[in-house]
Amino acid sequence: MQRNTSRKRANLRDVAAAAGVSVATVSRVMNAPETVAEATRKKVEEAMNSLHWVPSAAARAINTGRTRFVGALVPTLDNAIFARMLASMESRLATHRLSLVVATTDNDPAREAEKAKGLVDIGAEGLVVSGITHAPEFYSLIERCQLPAVSTSFYDPHYQLPTIGYDNAAAARTALAHLTDLGHSRIAVVHGPSASNDRTQARIAGLESHSPKGDLSFYEVPLSIAGGCEAGRNVLQAKKQPTAILCLSDVLASGVLFELQRQGVSVPQEKSVMGLDDLAGSAHLFPELSTVHLPVSRMGAAAADAIAAWVETQKVPGAYLLRSDLVIRTSTAAAASVDC
Amino acid sequence: MQRNTSRKRANLRDVAAAAGVSVATVSRVMNAPETVAEATRKKVEEAMNSLHWVPSAAARAINTGRTRFVGALVPTLDNAIFARMLASMESRLATHRLSLVVATTDNDPAREAEKAKGLVDIGAEGLVVSGITHAPEFYSLIERCQLPAVSTSFYDPHYQLPTIGYDNAAAARTALAHLTDLGHSRIAVVHGPSASNDRTQARIAGLESHSPKGDLSFYEVPLSIAGGCEAGRNVLQAKKQPTAILCLSDVLASGVLFELQRQGVSVPQEKSVMGLDDLAGSAHLFPELSTVHLPVSRMGAAAADAIAAWVETQKVPGAYLLRSDLVIRTSTAAAASVDC
DNA sequence: ATGGTTGATGAAACTGGTTACATGTGTCAA
DNA sequence: TTGACACATGTAACCAGTTTCATCAACCAT
Questions:
Q1: Using 50, 70 and 90 to split pLDDT, how confident is the model at B213?
Q2: Which residue is nearest to nucleotide D10 (CA to C1')?
Q3: pLDDT of residue A339
Q4: Which of 3.90.660.10, 3.40.50.2300, 3.30.70.890, 2.115.10.20 is the CATH number of B67-166+296-324?
């Protein structure tokens, strides 16, 4: 039995000894190969291979002060909107040679703070969070650690963290305007839980502040397709039937469309249905969903760039507003003549 | 200006000096508070707070040899099937006090190997990959680093890595059997790119090996809803019209359903459509999609448990087979009487 | 009074790299 | 022949923690 075969992993000194050089030379072979003589380099590389040496990330990190990964805190991965954002964030971070650690919060600020702590504990260099509602522990954590952190899915240049997102209130108003422009005045608004979800709150507030003459009725359901179905049923049971249903999330709109179809209510002839998000599947629902496109891919990339710049240069990035655009498809039409 | 205000982060010695104790004592306050006298502990904690001290993850990692995170390599985050798996993996890993680093591979083995290298470089303790097709560099990496790695979405007890997944061939056969049981004999099979996607390959192989008397015609399209639409158009242009369309992924089935609806082909009266995956939205398509349920949430949890056990105890977990179940909804029906 | 045990603490070694600085050699111009 | 300088390499300090072992006081039973 040789010593080499022992289970213990080789370290720098072992390699140096095997190659008959100093640790500094081995280190140079890794970090500045051009400063090492050809022959020496070869010897060292052979030693590395024969010892199956793998550099220790922790040891490097302790010297450079860099771990090369950042954390992202999202409410859930089950909604495609966040998955899509993370997808583009991940690929953009890769161009900065940064990796992405994902943690989910279930929209619970306490859990968010806890997970944020966990990310810091394992060495995250920066954090990307969603929205602007966070636990006090979260704020004290990032303040205490001087941790770069940006907030997404929300735009507010006066918020204490740089925000990279869209104007939720405006997006909701855009959707509403489209419906009112089509002559709808009695409109049902379907939304997910608003408690501790600032995006939803902002969208509702945007509608209320700008509420036209017509009356809006609000329906709060779980943020899922099943929730949308439930909302669809609830709306159909209302005494004064709305001519349009505005869903503050495409996921809910999917459920609403499904339920209306199941109950034989034709869209858009009998009722217009409007979404907000523009998920990949929304263009392929039946009928194709009119919605407001939220540029989550660009947002993910922008958030990646912002947090990368911050951790690299120590400069705090500015807030960044992304436009949201109306996407008119076939689920909306002029208000039924019945109303005229 | 005080020294304290300097930008440099405080370290253990600073805290020890401020509290008037040794570094060992400060370390104990963190890791074994009960061994430190009440009064001393308080002094130390005060010093920690006043210096805004945050322990260095890297320094801890270098001693314990643990970084407390593992990496997951998935083809994409844009398909809900992977997002859902990651969601459950993340939450199960959290119970093991492990975090999850996500990297996407676009089904490219070379990129996968590269990203795997990146994950190792930043200190991942283990890896979870999808499928069994990997680049040689990937295998040499995990062999060289002695890195715990498990494979998901595939079950093969003889594969060199522990596999935690379902039997793709059997799942495809289950779907096919459902259609043939309903009397369908001419069946179109729609699938995504099979090159370097072993799950798709296995599903196709499963169908071919078990192919019934009836003839199957295969349509390969991009794995997206748009791809499904394309497949729908292609199928409708075929000379010999099939009575059923078997999609080897629910995403494709969504597109197919959409296209058939758009073209006025009624489902399941004129054609049955079958999926495979059982995404969250599939129960709410129109018509509700018959499919084979792949237990991706349980798979994510199982993968998390396996990799966690491996990194904690150094024991290699065994392969784990998850059942896939037929889910009959309304998109499939007995073959049209035209055929009789 | 003495020896044994427990509890709290400190000194210093240790983890595995990076890097500032020192050293030694060879080349070239003065 | 010598001084200047580049180049290759080594020595040792350093990063920020953990951990082993030693020390010392207090307490208790003999």
A1: low
A2: A22
A3: 42
A4: 3.40.50.2300
Residues of A in contact with B52 (CB under 8 A): 144
Tens digits of residue pLDDT in A218-274: 999 999 999 999 999 999 999 999 999 999 999 999 999 999 999 999 999 999 999
CB contact residues (below 8 A), chain B span 160-219, against chain A = none
For chain B, the helix, strand and coil percentages under 3-state DSSP, each to the nearest 5: 45, 15, 40
**B168-294+327-339 shares the fold of B67-166+296-324:** yes
Residues B42-78 as b or e (16 or more Cβ within 10 Å = b): ebbbebbeebebbbbbbbbbbeeebbbbbbbbbbbbb
Residues 133-152 of A with CB under 7 A from strand D: none
Pick from A58, A145, A225: which is nearest to B284 by CB? A225
Which of 2.40.10.10, 1.10.3720.10, 2.60.120.260, 1.10.260.40 would CATH assign to domain B3-55?
Answer: 1.10.260.40
For A39, A153, A174, the CA distances from A320, given in Å and listed in that order, are: 52, 11, 20
Residue A3: pLDDT over 50 = no
Q: Does domain A68-166+296-323 have CATH number 3.30.450.20?
A: no
> B224 — contact with chain A (CB < 8 Å)?
yes
Is the separation of the CB atoms in B260 and B274 below 8 Å?
no
Contacts of B119 (CB under 8 A, 6+ apart): A99, B71, B73, B101, B103, B127
The amino acid sitting at B41 is: R
Using left for φ > 0, alpha for ψ between -120 and 50, and beta otherwise, residue B222 falls in beta
